[in-house]
Design goal:
alpha/beta, 7-stranded mixed sheet, two-stranded parallel sheet, 9 helices, 11 strands, about 30% helix, binds zinc ion
Length: about 325
């Protein structure tokens, strides 16, 4: 007996049991639907053949330079300090008046420009330092070898012949004016323009040598014979005050220094002078000790016959 469908079953058996008309699918379980090629990631790869790995040659480490620790330097021995010099209070004040050119006739109150140059050269080479009234009045310490150059009366040769040499040697000087001569532009004397130019250099300061009482028959500010104190003060004080006022008006500051005409002092003027000036100069020869004050300083006249080298210690 043949059962119905028994022959078909045999055909089905040849197709692997799948419904008719369908080919067997080779789709792998991890492949996205519709993707037919197998992904390499999904295909198990054979393990790579293990090639012999080159043995790395060890690179020698560069040798490090040894860090040198600086040797501690021995502390330099401090120079032995020179023993402190006592503060100098000795000042030499040199007195000059008029300057002339080489070959002109001269007297004791004149000096040639050549000789003035030699004086400045000598001071420089012997370590002398020039100082100004403002330094003394301010109480600045004196250089060990201190000298103050003073020019009296206010001759125009102070500007034409001496000032260029002061500039060349950077030497300082104070000029004591007979103020009336400058104010009235008397020929042969400094003008205010000359004074201003010199003052602006910082090398020159100006003092008073009275306004018009310089001569008084060679007695300067001394009282006249038989003059009362009242008359004396009424005559002299306005003269001194005028000298102060004109200097201040023209040069910007009142004078600090008064040079006694002919070196002559007058006790009746002492109070006024000390009220108005910080420094006064006589003509007494010698050095001055500033520990005793700034009044009545000595001065040494420099002349053609007496160079500074004969006055000051070497
Ligand atoms: Zn004079």
């Amino acid at each position: 007996m043949v059962y119905p469908g028994a022959g078909r079953a045999a055909v089905s058996d040849r197709s692997g049991g799948l419904p008719e008309g369908r080919s067997p699918s080779r789709r792998l379980s991890c492949a996205p639907r519709g993707f037919r090629r197998p992904s390499p990631a999904c295909v198990p790869q054979p393990p790579p053949l293990s090639e012999p790995q080159p043995v790395p040659t060890p690179v020698p480490e560069p040798e490090l330079e040894p860090v040198s620790t600086p040797e501690p330097k021995p502390e330099p021995k401090p120079e032995p300090e020179p023993p402190p010099q006592p503060a100098n209070t000795r000042l030499y004040v040199l007195m000059y008046h008029h300057f002339i050119r080489e070959g002109e006739e001269y007297n004791d109150w004149m000096l040639t420009d050549t000789r003035f140059r030699e004086d400045l050269e000598w001071l420089d080479s012997h370590g002398y330092v020039t100082v100004l009234p403002s330094q003394l009045a301010a109480g600045e310490p004196l250089p060990q070898r201190a000298v103050m150059l003073t020019f009296d009366d206010g001759y125009d040769s102070n500007y034409t012949l001496a000032y260029p040499l002061l500039q060349e040697y950077q030497a300082k000087a104070v000029i004591s004016l007979i103020v009336k001569y400058t104010q009235e532009e008397v020929p042969g004397f400094l003008t205010w323009d000359m004074c201003r130019e010199m003052a602006s250099s910082g090398l020159v300061e100006f003092g008073s040598h009275t306004y018009a009482s310089h001569d008084e028959e060679e007695h300067g500010i001394k009282r006249r014979w038989g003059e009362s104190r009242e008359d004396y003060e009424a005559r002299l004080f306005p003269d001194l005050q005028t000298s102060i006022d004109r200097i201040e008006e023209n040069l910007g500051s009142p004078p600090l220094l008064f040079a006694y005409p002919n070196g002559l002092k007058e006790s009746w003027a002492a109070g006024f002078i000390q009220d108005h000036f910080a420094i006064t100069l006589t003509t007494k020869h010698g050095a001055s000790d500033l520990s005793k004050g700034l009044y009545s300083l000595n001065r040494c006249n420099v002349s053609m016959g007496v160079p500074v080298g004969d006055i000051l210690p070497d």
